[in-house]
Specification:
Elements lengths: L7 H24 L4 H4 L1 E2 H8 L3 H9 L5 E4 L2 E4 L1 H9 L3
Antiparallel strand pairs: 1-3, 2-3
Length: 90
């Protein structure tokens, strides 16, 4: 059975290879992120469009008249639902 000795240089080379692999993975995932236009409107935008307060938006969400999703700490509202509410005279 052959014994191989691992040196600090070998570990440094392995570390650099892993870092390059991680960078490549992150870069490929970053390209796949959804653009802001596809996410929807932010809360402040919907408030400006509909002319309503935050509590009204929450009520619309609870009543399922306004679809939404939360990414990170930001709430995004479905563009079609906002347009429909605006066109219906909300």
């Amino acid at each position: 059975m052959a014994v191989e000795i691992v040196t600090k240089e070998d570990l440094q080379v392995l570390r650099m290879q892993l870092m390059e692999d991680f960078k490549a993975i992150l870069m490929s995932q970053q390209k796949q992120l959804v653009s802001p236009d596809e996410r929807g409107y932010k809360t402040k935008d919907v408030r400006a469009i509909l002319g309503c307060c935050v509590n009204t938006l929450v009520s619309l969400r609870v009543a399922r008249k306004l679809r939404w999703k939360k990414e990170g700490g930001t709430v995004y509202y479905n563009r079609e639902d906002v347009r429909k509410l605006r066109d219906d005279g909300f």
